[in-house]
Amino acid sequence: MRAGTGLDDQGFFVPEGALSRVRPPFDAVLAAARPRLEEAFADRLDGAYLYGSVPRGTARAGRSDLDLLLVLAREPGPADRAAAGELAAGLDEEFRQIDGAGILLMGRERLLSPAERHDGGWFLACLCTPWFGTDHVPLLPRYRPSSLLARETNGDLGARLPLWRERVARARTDAELRLLCRAFARKLVRTGFTLVMPRLNAWTSELDASALAFGDCYPQRGAQMRRAAAVAREPLADRALLAAFTEDLGPWLAAEYARVHGVKSEENPKRGG
């Protein structure tokens, strides 16, 4: 692996997580989650994966969330999404080690399709850690940083902004505003990093490192991105901050992304809907 780049000696992404990196405070959560997932989805569950800070070994007890991806034998429907939401809420309520839980669902056929090759496929192969069930990673190619990868993973920011504004307008509680703050900030920081990823020929999922790398390339927006990284970890119930995301940093970033990499094709919808 090339030191500090997230890539190997040939320039391919190195999978960033491993089950061996899961820290003891989170073992109990995973031990409880697995039988519940197996019971809820039964033979529809083809493979389960971890992603985010828990398999990277950087999760903080009581501060980090638990992120799971379930690959189903068929395309998920409303009942599957409802079951996933109920399971995630139950884990969040029961275990103080985590601050939120999220379960992404994808159908196996769609995940392995050419349309998902540089979005869901890359996400699975490079950012997810096989947990139990079928490991689909050997069916996918290896990946290098590229403009195509940047466009297909985060070239949808402009299309998301109207929905973000609607969600802020509907929010009524501080808890809702904090959830939106964390979600929007994470998306902005990750989009900012993938904007510069091909230029740097490097990869990181760490928010602070992503913001700093972006700021090196766009110093005029660096302070805003560092602020987004900070509130992604410690979200605020601040409508003014959310307005800055949706009316200033977000539109600028979407326009610059489209100029540099193009816009994600409508035929390739974002994973998870």
TrEMBL record:
<dbReference type="InterPro" id="IPR002934">
    <property type="entry name" value="Polymerase_NTP_transf_dom"/>
</dbReference>
<feature type="domain" description="Polymerase nucleotidyl transferase">
    <location>
        <begin position="45"/>
        <end position="76"/>
    </location>
</feature>
<protein>
    <submittedName>
        <fullName>Nucleotidyltransferase domain-containing protein</fullName>
    </submittedName>
</protein>
<dbReference type="InterPro" id="IPR043519">
    <property type="entry name" value="NT_sf"/>
</dbReference>
<dbReference type="Pfam" id="PF01909">
    <property type="entry name" value="NTP_transf_2"/>
</dbReference>
